Each structure stands twice: as structure tokens, then as C-alpha cells.
UniProtKB/TrEMBL annotation:
Gene3D superfamilies linked to this entry: 1.20.1050.10, Glutaredoxin
Gene Ontology molecular-function annotations: transferase activity
Signal sequence segment: none
Alphabetical list of PANTHER family matching this protein: GLUTATHIONE S-TRANSFERASE (PTHR43968:SF14), PTHR43968
Name of the protein described by the UniProt record: Glutathione S-transferase
Pfam family, one: GST_C_2
CDD domains, alphabetized: GST_N_family
Amino acid sequence: MPQAARREAIATPWTAQEAAGLAAPPSQREEPVFYTHTLCPYAERVWIALLEKQVPFQLIHIDLSRKPTWYRSLNPRGLVPAVQLGGMVHTESADICRWLDGAFPMGPQLVPGDAALRREMEDLVRGPCSGTVSAGLDLMAGCTGRHWGIGSGQTAAQKAALQAELDQLAAALRRHGGPFLLGAQPTLPDVLVYPFLYRYDVGMRGLAGHDLGAAGGGAIRGWLDAMAARPSCAASSADPQLLLAAFRKHMELDFFDYTTYPCFKLHPHNAYLLQ
Ligand SMILES: N[C@@H](CCC(=O)N[C@@H](CS)C(=O)NCC(=O)O)C(=O)O
């Protein structure tokens, strides 16, 4: 997407108050309101989907360490992401991505129209996409066993478990000729798994010298590169060097607080949205 369109999609309208997550909840709006935290991989799925679908939206940051009181009345579980449109609030990242695809038929389809392809997509979502998320969390935790923790001492079994999931993703890439899991365009499985695999790749390469991209004879690196080249992913991904430095500092994946990290500190490429 050209830079101008991306700016409009992310930034309309944007105020410093909203950026701090302090604004009152918007009432009925004509465009979706996306409640997010820039460091949450689940929220990043929705960010990518909105940008891929080229849906104009308003983005509101929620500081997860200092949630505005109104947010729980919007989403009782208090989690990001949430998307509000026309008085309805949608939650759960995968459900939101599916809903967006149906509600906004413009832009590329994330859920294929073809029935056989859709079945394959569902198998990927339930199987290796979900498996990659959990095996990757386990690998990142290493010998600490801390959920969402980052540690050293990754075991051969932890590496093999993630490798098995990545091999299945690589097989899908081979079947469809890439560069994305179901062929020429990114679809739901790409969107769901990328924010997680991006973090695991940055973390494992930087902290353990372990190259996840080598899986499938390098097919996974090709896929990571193809996703990284999408303007949606370039906009929503944290800067890899800054993310790695944050991993080193906190040794966990969920250091979600805008006191430590103002919303775009690890995303300096988005800082222009705050001007
Ligand atoms: N299953 C949810 C998970 C969302 C989630 O766990 N979000 C975390 C941030 S990554 C959150 O909002 N945590 C805030 C809290 O637990 O209070 C989804 O897919 O949307």
C-alpha cells in the first residue's frame, strides 16, 4: 500500500490523548475502531489484517499496565485486540480477522472463496499455525519453563517440536509455490502466524544463534522475507534490533507497558503518526 494510504488507514483521526489510551471510548463510528497495544502479537494480527484489507480505521492504544477504566466496559476480559463498529465490539484476534474479511469485501480475501482451499486453510490454522505459536513459546522459554518467558538452554526436543510445525508450513509453501502459505497472496494463516514467528525468529537468531528460517530448506526464511516486505507487516512489526534489545532487557515476550515503552518506541517507523 502506498505510504499516503497507509497513513490514512492508520492515523485517521489521531490525537495525543488517544495515543496515550486515555481518550473516552468513541461512540458510534462509521469506521472500525481498533483497540491495540503495539507490542501484542495477537493485536498485530488484526493490524495486519486491517492494512491488508485496506480498511480505513482508527487506532487507539491501550496501555495494558494502566488500562483505562472504560475499556472493561467495552471488552469485559480487558484484553487487546478489540474492534468496535456500529455499536458492536469484536474480540479474539482470529475471530476479528475472519469478521473483517467478511464485513469488508474490498481488498484481498483473507479467507479463500474456493471450498477446497478454504478447507486447507482451516487445516493450516488449526494445525501448524496454532502449533507454531505454542511450540515457539515453549522454545523461547528454553529451560526456564516460564510461559511467555525467554530463557537459554533450549532442548533438542523443544527445537524438534517447532521444527515439525515449520516443516508443515514449508510443505504448504511448496504445494502452492509460495511466496505465501496458500500461494500468491497472504491469507488468514499467514496473518495469524507471522507476528509470532517474527518474534521467535528475532529472538532465537539474536539470543541463541538458532536460525528458524532454515526450516524447509530455507523456505521459512523466504516466507518471513515475503511477509516482511508487505507494507502491512513493515508497518506493524517492531524494529528487529530494538525488539531484540528489549528481549535481552526483559527476558520475556510480554513486557506490555507504555511506561517502559511509549507506544511507538519499538516502532520508530510509525512515530510520524504522533506528530
Ligand atoms: N486469545 C486472545 C488473546 C489476547 C491477549 O492475550 N492479549 C494480551 C496481550 S498480548 C492482553 O490483552 N493482556 C492483557 C491482560 O491480560 O490484562 C486473542 O487472540 O485476541
